[in-house]
Design goal:
101 residues; alpha+beta; two-stranded antiparallel ribbon; 3 helices; 30% helix; 28% strand
Length: 101
């Protein structure tokens, strides 16, 4: 994988994620929107674009929106403060690998 992403449980059993700054919103996406029982929905849309059944898909969860294109996916934080960066870009194939973790 291109990005060094670590997903683990802390001492109290809480899910923790470390991700590089350039894909910082992956943390919000995973912790707020992609829960185990709903991860299939997010992965199915990524697969639909990667298999070229669709050229674009979009999905909004509790905190983030994914705008999926073949090469790049834009993750947007719907609640970003005015002085915060509201989105990040990540390679779609890499995002799929992160979601599979």
């Amino acid at each position: 994988m291109k990005y060094n992403v670590q997903i683990y449980e802390d001492n109290q059993g809480m899910l923790m994620i470390n991700a590089p700054d350039e894909i910082f919103l992956v943390i919000d996406l995973l912790l707020s929107d992609v829960q185990e029982d709903r991860s299939k929905l997010w992965l199915d849309l990524i697969d639909k674009v990667l298999s070229k059944q669709s050229s674009y898909e979009e999905l909004t969860g509790n905190a983030c929106t994914m705008e999926i294109k073949y090469d790049v996916t834009k993750i947007v934080n719907e609640y970003a403060e005015e002085d915060q960066n509201a989105y990040c870009l990540t390679e779609t194939a890499e995002l799929k690998q992160i979601l599979l973790m």
